[in-house]
Design goal:
The chain is α/β, with parallel strands linked by helices and about 500 residues long. The chain has three domains: about 100 residues, no CATH class; about 140 residues, Nucleotidyltransferase, domain 5 (2-Layer Sandwich); about 140 residues, no CATH class. About 50% of the residues lie in helices and about 10% in strands. It contains 21 helices and nine strands. The strands form two sheets. A five-stranded mixed beta sheet has the order 7-6-5-8-9, with helices on both faces. Strands 1, 2, 3 and 4 form a four-stranded mixed beta sheet that branches. A hairpin with a 3-residue loop joins β2 and β3. It starts with 9 loop residues before the first strand and ends with a helix. The relative contact order is 0.10.
């Protein structure tokens, strides 16, 4: 879309009233300010705003039309903020993609500004969510009440993100960052849920000691259930954890993934010179005789595809994690199957030429050491033969919720680790997921036409205070101090330093 204006036009704004609605006093000009504003429907323009003041009660007034477009002091309209927030947090675009999308809508913006707008979007949504709490509660009561699911996620030593979701309405009720999953930190969060939404019909959570104590303290008479998913997961780890750790460690020791990928990369170069071979493989698998010219290169294609099939074992599963999914075990089994198939194939001479089978011999050498690893294969197969322990899964709403949150982060950043996301995100960011819920949106908008209109009703002072509080984190340790306090002998070194300084 081309830009609407070669230079930003000047647009005048002033209050529509001439007398004070409170006391009836005449309004006079207080001041005039000009700022640059960008909105989706216009692009960039200069907003010249006239402020009026009541001569009698000294109450100031601003342009209603401009306040409906953009927050006081802001340079991007509510529509740009909503677009950026939804793009990052619901469509899982990264900052650069959002910058490009907005550029096509005549809005020039930096990645940093996109990030800031998305944070404001979260805060506006949080304020609106809190203000609609009575209506959300009333809606949940039409179903008989709410069932409070509780869970937390974290990576390493980063703060935990704890969330509460009503299973019946699938509405995220609240979130908090905690420095530790213990009673004293969980209780205030549960008290807030209780004060806002009342007593739940029941609670569902894992078997952590902290959450068990906190729930018993805040909701002593409420039916309390251990999540089937977490219960089975803990049992599964007890049954399978030791052997599974051995499998993972032995695979890592042999660096077999790297070796297979390297070999596949070498073979791919040969395949790129013969793209017709893939069609030949499809033909052969379909029980049609192979072309004569394809026989010479078939071992290259066979080994390449078998390696890729083997590596796919690492992603086998349904995303539930161990012990429900066993990707390392699946990978090990496919390695053994690869070895068996290569043993069979290398004995065959399609053209009567041993040199054609060089790819088979090369991969056979790569597999030699791992196939001799008795510790690995003893863990894969018991003396009584293969044993399959398959606990029944449960459709745990919060496990799915956190998995989707982390998948979205991987889509935006390309980083498998969620550590930075959990450390830097605003605690109430998961509330944005409610915006995909039509029933919730109806409650939130409360007869308003859009989120932009809803957000425009929120006072700027309320937004600024909420934004300040939202940026508070459970722990603000300067990054340069973290490696120091991680030292086992840090106290001794600190004491020695002080003694040296005062000597």
């Amino acid at each position: 879309m081309p830009r609407l204006f070669t230079t930003p036009p000047m647009v005048d704004f002033r209050p529509s009233i001439t007398h004070c609605p409170g006391c009836g006093g005449e309004l006079k000009v207080l001041k005039t300010r000009t700022r640059t504003v960008s909105t989706l429907h216009v692009g960039r323009f200069r907003a010249r705003e006239v402020f009026l003041i009541c001569k009698s009660c000294a109450h100031p007034y601003r342009s209603e039309k401009l306040c409906a477009l953009v927050a006081p002091g802001a340079n991007f309209g509510y529509d740009v903020m909503v677009y950026a927030g939804k793009a990052l947090l619901l469509r899982h675009r990264n900052q650069e993609e959002v910058v490009a999308e907005l550029a096509r809508r005549n809005v020039q913006i930096s990645p940093r500004e996109v990030s800031l707008l998305s944070m404001k979007f979260v805060v506006y949504t949080t304020i609106a969510h809190q203000r609609r709490a009575p209506e959300i509660t009333a809606n949940m009561q039409t179903r008989g009440g709410y069932i409070c699911h509780l869970d937390a996620t974290c990576e390493g030593r980063d703060p935990l993100l704890m969330s509460s979701i009503d299973w019946l309405s699938e509405i995220v009720l609240g979130n908090v960052k905690l420095p530790a999953e213990d009673e004293k930190h969980i209780v205030p969060f549960l008290e807030r849920i209780k004060k806002t939404f009342g007593i739940p019909l029941a609670l569902v959570h894992d078997m952590g000691k902290g959450i068990l104590k906190a729930v018993a303290r805040v909701f002593p008479d409420v039916p309390d259930f251990i999540c089937h998913f977490h219960f089975l997961r803990d049992i599964g780890k007890d049954f399978l954890g030791t052997e599974y750790d051995i499998i993972r460690d032995r695979l890592s020791k042999h660096a077999i993934s790297a070796k297979l990928r390297y070999r596949a990369k070498q073979l791919k170069r040969d395949l790129d010179r013969k793209p017709e071979l893939i069609q030949a493989l499809e033909t052969g698998i379909g029980n049609t005789p192979l072309p004569i010219g394809a026989l010479q290169f078939l071992p290259v294609l066979n080994v390449y595809t078998l390696i890729q099939w083997t590596l796919r074992g690492k992603s086998e599963g349904h995303g539930y994690g161990f012990p429900f999914d066993h990707p390392h075990l699946a990978f090990a089994k496919r390695i053994r199957r690869l070895h068996v198939e290569v043993e069979n194939l290398k004995a065959m001479q399609l053209r009567g030429e041993w040199k054609d089978n060089k790819p088979y011999f090369k991969i056979h050498v790569e597999l030699k050491n791992i196939m001799k690893d008795r510790t690995l294969w003893k863990s894969v197969q018991t003396p009584s033969g293969p044993i399959r322990i398959q606990p029944q899964r449960t459709n745990n709403i919060l496990e799915q919720f956190f998995r989707s949150l982390k998948r979205a982060n991987r889509r935006r950043t390309g980083n498998a680790s969620s550590s930075r996301m959990l450390r830097t995100m605003l605690a109430e960011t998961p509330l944005v997921r409610n915006l995909n819920n039509p029933n919730y949106m109806k409650i939130l908008l409360n007869r308003k036409a859009s989120l932009e209109e809803l957000f425009a009703d929120i006072e700027i002072d309320t937004l600024r205070e909420a934004f300040r509080k939202a940026q508070d984190t459970p722990e603000k340790i300067p990054s340069k101090l973290k490696p120091l306090i991680a030292m086992p002998d840090f106290p001794e070194k600190l004491l020695a330093m002080v003694k040296k300084a005062v000597a």
